[in-house]
């Protein structure tokens, strides 16, 4: 074309236009998907605050001339929701504490202490990543039945403690800690446990928070295991209770959506508050 | 072996005292975790293997009586087992492909915007932190319900006279399950990809831009290849997660309609806990475990080879 | 904590009646259990008492695995909707009469999830004290050792004597001549019809449906109704509802004189292939001639009747409340006699109150539970309003019940009650219902020919029967 005359200037110009156009399209695609992704949550919320008679007339309308929190009040008055919240919280917290404690200790041993068969021990643990907990439900259930721990928090918690990913994340982190730090502490006469607790763990905050988030979310949302272990309605975790226990008065649509919203709210709030940290934590545990 | 030699022989000078005490310290530090690991992982794994040779029942005390390879033969000849395995694999294909590609696309696009990225991150990742029970309630009664569901409503508005029963029609149910799952979990992969993108140095982009590559070419020839490691990881994690599908299917369709969505994990729960046939379900568990192991190993092997070739 | 340590656990004074032989066997078990439980409890003790003392005993129970207090009565049922509302009213009557006890009722999802939960809870030593079970399920639960045998004298002590119960459900509450349940009702699969539509279609004779017995006659009646509604003649649920499809099939199949689908507690398949094919062919005919919809779920099937898109509805009696709520003119009657090869039959089941096996035997608790059961029976009239035919004769024979319309219009259906065949994989919401029901749906929608569907019924049953019973 007119290649000889317009060489230098228009080429970047055209590229800049293409860049701008591309950005516009990209933004459009992203916004469209993001809105689509928000629809189910917003729809559930919108339905949950509509009065029953309005829903009966037009079940799919988003709007209400008379919004009400009746469905939520009903759930709290009649349901066992407070128990489920408490149970989920206790179970998640216990599992997280036990996992962070045992996994970091083990990772510390594997990373900082030299001993025979260390590599073998590490590989043996690592192999556990390959074993999905779900295929072990039957023996785990029978074992807990044998010792009478069904329908207790321990029954939900204990089998979820050996989390190999957690060990792995901690070990990765500990491997990166400068050797001098540990050696200096040892030279000062600190025992291994003191070194672990006073020197290494404070440095390992990012790993602790990553594992905490990752384990807490996983346990909070675990459905299948507590579904089998817990049958007492007052002992259920939130997901199991929401699924198993029905309202005797049938299926008021608003209440179903309200319970879905209430099930979603705790972690959504936590996520909104600590978005960046959670995302980094998840990415950190999933990646490396 | 190498490591024992390495610590013991090659560096004998390094804190000799510590090494001696370490002989017990190391195992002691690992012990608490190892205890849980052995009791709840290794033990059950062995038990699963052994229980397969017995006709154990949840409703009878004891181990059951020895039946040899009967359970193994029965599972291999059980049409329903193969059907649930087929569903599981089909679900894995239906979810892994969009969950990897969509997450990749969305992450690459979102990476271009600094402002507003939190919004996209929120929109895509928020569903991931919601318990499956909430997800199922929302979709079963709200979005995918017959007559009163949003999806049917929208289709009708678009002029489709009789939209399908998303969860009630055997030819649609599995697609619905896949769709819900994509909505629910794409955020996780999205976040992993965003993290992967952070690791690509800016000057790579700039170099490519100076070479005259447009945005699309840069994505195709520079960004995507550089995300290779992330893609491998995301794909493996996704495949394994999809092979373990249970929650949303159990809650929304119960494996139906006409058994068309029942995954193997549900078959384990149904045979093991609803019917109480623990011996049989142990064998099904073992097979599912082998399938998961095999698929992840094959995938790793393929990727390893591809990396070596390139 | 201490209480747990010394608690005898499952070491009941001898095997509880109804448990499988050897169930509480191993004498070492209780002490080991108590020890381990106590150990876990001690570990948690400090945390539990210090941090959570304000949060009630339930949370402490979660740590220690303790048992509920003695005046607590845990009651499980699978009732939602109209049934649920009525059951709540009946529970309130009980609570009014016995304010000293604390009744905790929980409603679970009907079908397999409910029974799985019930058996896992019993196996896990935390069963409810009283539970609702279908009589189609009762033999399975009893043989699995999950139920307590009900002592006749304790029953009589609460005024529940055999002659006060409808004979058929009473008999069905026994397994090997032992009583395991207090029957509450019989709930058949019946025919609802819009009186206004039937009138316009010229089907009414003195307010009653006339001439609808027989295959062609019933189809003709549906066609007449279809002409009035402009949509369908009748409706029946087929989407996401294999149980309803099973009920429809079993009704016609039994009318055709078909042998029980399975025998020997489920070990042998005795299905009559020809009868099954004929029943399925008729169901297909109704679908093919567009007399009934092939794509309606449970809710839609009812809505079709209440909005006048269908003049008939084939469904269980328990949907009566939903239809009543719509305030349309309707009546009910037993499912028509389509085939006359055998005595009249229609699918039916019964609810019974059962006492799941408790970790330790406690006569006071049994009395408390039976007292509750007796109280529910006394509220049978409330239950009958929800459509169920009361098994409690003082109510069934009362003038008040006979005046209840349309509830009293199908009482005779109970006599033709065709229960699910007895099999460990059978009963309400079971694998048998689901697998057979799915085959029926395939015939109704035309995905399978009646012959193929009948063969599928047989092969599904054979697959189930081939499995060694876990009981």
UniProtKB/TrEMBL annotation, chain A:
Q: Identify the Gene3D superfamilies for this entry.
A: MetI-like
Tell me where in or outside the cell this protein is found. Answer: Cell membrane
Annotated ranges, domain ABC transmembrane type-1: 85-274
Task: Give TM segment ranges.
Answer: 21-43, 84-108, 120-141, 153-170, 207-230, 250-274
Q: Which PROSITE patterns match?
A: ABC_TM1
Q: Which UniProt keywords apply?
A: Cell membrane, Membrane, Transmembrane, Transmembrane helix, Transport
Q: Note whether Transmembrane occurs among the keywords.
A: yes
Concerning CDD domains, the annotation shows: TM_PBP2
Chief place of localization: membrane
Membrane topology designation: Multi-pass membrane protein
Known InterPro entries for this protein? Answer: MetI-like, MetI-like_sf
Presence of the UniProt keyword Cell division in the record? no
- Describe the family membership recorded for this protein in Swiss-Prot or TrEMBL: Belongs to the binding-protein-dependent transport system permease family.
Q: What is this protein called?
A: Carbohydrate ABC transporter permease
């Amino acid at each position: 074309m007119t290649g000889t005359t317009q060489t230098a200037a228009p080429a970047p110009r055209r590229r800049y236009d293409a860049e701008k156009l591309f950005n516009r399209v990209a933004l459009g695609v992203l916004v469209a998907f993001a809105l689509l992704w928000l629809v189910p949550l917003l729809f559930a919320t919108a339905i949950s605050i509509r009065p029953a008679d309005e829903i009966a007339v037009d079940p799919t309308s988003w709007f209400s001339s008379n919004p009400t929190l009746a469905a939520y009040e009903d759930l709290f008055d009649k349901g066992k929701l407070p128990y489920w919240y408490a149970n989920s919280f206790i179970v998640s917290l216990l599992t997280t504490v036990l996992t962070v404690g045992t996994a970091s200790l083990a990772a510390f041993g594997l990373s900082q202490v030299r001993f025979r068969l260390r590599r073998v021990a590490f590989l043996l643990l690592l192999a556990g990543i390959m074993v999905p907990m779900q295929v072990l439900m039957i023996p785990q259930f029978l074992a807990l039945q044998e010792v009478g721990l069904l329908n207790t928090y321990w029954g939900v918690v204990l089998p979820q403690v050996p989390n190999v990913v957690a060990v792995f994340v901690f070990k990765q982190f500990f491997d990166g800690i400068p050797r001098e730090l540990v050696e200096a502490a040892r030279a000062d006469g600190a025992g291994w446990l003191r070194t672990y607790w006073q020197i290494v763990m404070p440095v390992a905050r990012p790993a602790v928070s990553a594992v905490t988030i990752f384990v807490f979310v996983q346990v909070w949302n675990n459905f299948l295991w507590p579904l089998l272990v817990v049958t007492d309605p007052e002992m259920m975790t939130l997901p199991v209770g929401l699924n198993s226990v029905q309202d005797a008065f049938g299926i008021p649509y608003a209440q179903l959506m309200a319970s879905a919203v209430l099930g979603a709210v705790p972690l959504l709030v936590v996520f909104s508050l600590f978005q960046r940290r959670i995302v980094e934590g998840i990415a950190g545990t999933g990646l490396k | 072996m190498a490591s024992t030699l390495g610590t013991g022989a090659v560096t004998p000078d390094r804190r000799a005292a510590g090494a001696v005490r370490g002989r017990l310290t190391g195992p002691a530090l690992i012990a608490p975790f190892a205890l849980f690991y052995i009791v709840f992982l290794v033990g059950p794994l062995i038990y699963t293997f052994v229980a397969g040779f017995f006709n154990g029942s949840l409703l009878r005390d004891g181990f059951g009586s020895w039946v040899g390879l009967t359970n193994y033969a029965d599972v291999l000849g059980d049409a329903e087992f193969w059907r649930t395995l087929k569903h599981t694999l089909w679900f894995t294909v239906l979810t892994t492909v969009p969950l990897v590609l969509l997450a990749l696309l969305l992450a690459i696009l979102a990476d271009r915007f600094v402002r507003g990225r939190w919004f996209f991150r929120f929109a895509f990742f928020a569903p991931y932190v919601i318990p499956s029970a909430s997800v199922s309630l929302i979709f079963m009664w709200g979005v995918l319900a017959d007559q009163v569901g949003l999806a049917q409503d929208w289709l009708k508005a678009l002029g489709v006279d009789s939209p399908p029963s998303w969860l009630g029609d055997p030819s649609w149910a599995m697609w619905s399950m896949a769709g819900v799952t994509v909505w629910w979990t794409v955020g996780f992969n999205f976040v992993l990809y965003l993290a992967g993108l952070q690791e690509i140095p800016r000057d790579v982009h700039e170099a490519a831009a100076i070479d005259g590559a447009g945005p699309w070419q840069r994505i195709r020839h520079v960004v995507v290849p550089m995300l290779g490691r992330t893609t491998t990881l995301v794909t493996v994690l996704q495949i394994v997660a999809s092979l373990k599908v249970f929650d949303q299917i159990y809650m929304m369709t119960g494996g139906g309609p006409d058994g068309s969505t029942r995954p193997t994990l549900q078959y384990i729960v149904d045979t093991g806990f609803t019917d109480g046939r623990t011996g049989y379900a142990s064998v099904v568990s073992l097979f599912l475990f082998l399938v998961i192991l095999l698929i992840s190993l094959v995938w790793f092997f393929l990727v390893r080879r591809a990396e070596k070739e390139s | 904590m201490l209480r747990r340590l010394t608690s005898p656990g499952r070491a009941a004074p001898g095997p509880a009646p109804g448990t499988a032989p050897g169930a509480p066997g191993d004498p070492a078990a209780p002490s080991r259990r108590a020890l381990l439980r106590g150990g876990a409890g001690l570990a948690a003790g400090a945390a539990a008492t210090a941090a959570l003392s304000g949060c009630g005993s339930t949370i402490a129970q979660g740590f220690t695995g303790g048992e509920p207090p003695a005046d607590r009565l845990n009651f499980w049922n699978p009732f939602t909707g109209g049934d649920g509302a009525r059951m709540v009213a009946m529970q309130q009557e009980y609570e009014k009469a016995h304010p000293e006890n604390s009744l905790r009722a929980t409603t679970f999802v009907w079908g397999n999830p409910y029974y799985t939960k019930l058996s896992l809870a019993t196996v896990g030593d935390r069963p409810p004290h009283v539970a609702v079970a279908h009589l189609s399920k009762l033999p399975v639960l009893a043989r699995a050792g999950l139920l307590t045998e009900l002592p006749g004298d304790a029953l009589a002590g609460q005024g529940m004597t055999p002659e006060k119960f409808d004979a058929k459900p009473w008999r069905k509450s026994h397994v090997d001549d032992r009583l395991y349940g207090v029957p509450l009702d019989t709930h058949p699969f019946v025919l609802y019809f819009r009186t206004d539509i039937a009138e316009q279609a010229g089907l009414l004779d003195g307010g009653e449906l006339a001439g609808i017995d027989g295959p062609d006659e019933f189809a003709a009646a549906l066609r007449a109704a279809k002409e009035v509604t402009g949509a369908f003649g009748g409706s029946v649920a087929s989407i996401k509802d294999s149980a309803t499809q099973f009920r429809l099939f079993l009704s016609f199949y039994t009318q055709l004189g078909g042998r029980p689908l399975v025998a020997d507690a489920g070990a042998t398949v005795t299905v009559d292939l020809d009868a099954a094919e004929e029943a399925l062919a008729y169901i297909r005919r109704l679908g093919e001639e567009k007399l009934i919809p092939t794509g309606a779920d449970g809710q839609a099937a009812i809505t079709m009747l209440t909005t006048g898109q269908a003049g008939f509805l084939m469904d269980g009696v328990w949907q009566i409340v939903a239809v009543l709520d719509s305030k349309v003119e309707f009546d009910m009657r037993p499912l028509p006699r389509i085939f006359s090869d055998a005595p009249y039959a229609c699918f039916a089941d019964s609810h019974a109150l059962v006492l799941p096996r408790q970790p330790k035997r406690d006569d006071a608790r049994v009395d408390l539970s039976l007292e509750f059961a007796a109280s529910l029976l006394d509220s049978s009239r409330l239950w009958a309003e929800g459509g169920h035919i009361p098994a409690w004769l003082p109510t069934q024979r009362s003038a008040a019940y006979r005046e209840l319309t349309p509830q009293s219009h199908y009482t005779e259906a109970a006599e033709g009650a065709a229960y699910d065949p007895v099999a460990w994989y059978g009963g309400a919401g079971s694998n048998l219902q689901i697998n057979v029901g799915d085959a029926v749906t395939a015939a109704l929608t035309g995905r399978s020919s009646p012959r193929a569907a009948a063969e599928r019924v047989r092969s599904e049953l054979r697959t189930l029967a081939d499995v060694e019973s876990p009981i």
